[in-house]
């Protein structure tokens, strides 16, 4: 065991050299020697207890492994137990009771009812607006102005793309390749 951090290993003076450190007031040299001896014993007991604890932890880990208990199982168990502890705590029970009181209060019921009605009215209004917009777009598409615009765009497309411009951007695969498709290099 490494006792490098032990106070009992320090020289009586606490410093390197020949000078003895001053003893605390009211402590004699005999008492200081006795205290250092007791400190050494306590530190040895602490180290022994650490070794025993480490051995017990290894043994417990081995038993858990043999039982098939994984760290995930332990975590799940700890979370479940923690949640049960929270649910039975005074703070949780008080908060839960308060929330129940609020949920059953007249003010809560009125607020809930008002928000529900507002939602229904908003939904109906949006539906009406959507229907009106849809109807107006349909009317606009059937108007003579839109028909004229649509015809002009169609004529322009035919002039720019040509008669093949009805979705056949590159022609059909059975068409022979043109000279532009296979330029000489």
TrEMBL record:
Instruction: Give the signal peptide as a residue range, or say none if absent.
Output: none
Statement: the UniProt record of this protein carries the keyword Coiled coil: yes
Family annotation (InterPro entries): TPD52 (IPR007327)
Q: Which UniProt keywords apply?
A: Coiled coil
Q: Which stretches of sequence are listed as region Disordered?
A: 1-36, 159-185
Q: Which superkingdom is the protein from?
A: Eukaryota
Family from the record: Belongs to the TPD52 family.
Q: What is this protein called?
A: Tpd52 like 2b
């Amino acid at each position: 065991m490494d006792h490098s951090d032990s106070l009992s290993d320090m020289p009586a003076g606490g410093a390197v050299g020949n000078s003895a450190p001053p003893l605390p007031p009211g402590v004699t040299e005999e008492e200081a020697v006795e205290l250092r001896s007791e400190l050494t014993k306590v530190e040895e007991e602490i180290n022994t207890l650490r070794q025993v604890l480490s051995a017990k932890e290894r043994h417990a880990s081995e038993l858990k492994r043999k039982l098939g208990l994984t760290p995930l199982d332990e975590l799940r168990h700890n979370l479940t137990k923690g949640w049960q502890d929270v649910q039975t705590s005074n703070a949780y029970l008080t908060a839960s009771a308060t929330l129940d009181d609020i949920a059953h209060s007249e003010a809560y019921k009125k607020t809930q009812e008002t928000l529900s009605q507002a939602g229904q009215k908003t939904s109906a209004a949006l539906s009406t607006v959507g229907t009106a917009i849809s109807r107006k777009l349909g009317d606009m598409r059937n108007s003579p102005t839109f028909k004229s615009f649509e015809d002009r765009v169609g004529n322009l497309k035919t002039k720019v793309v040509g008669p093949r411009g009805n979705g056949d951007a590159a022609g059909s695969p059975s068409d022979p390749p043109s000279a532009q498709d296979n330029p000489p290099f």
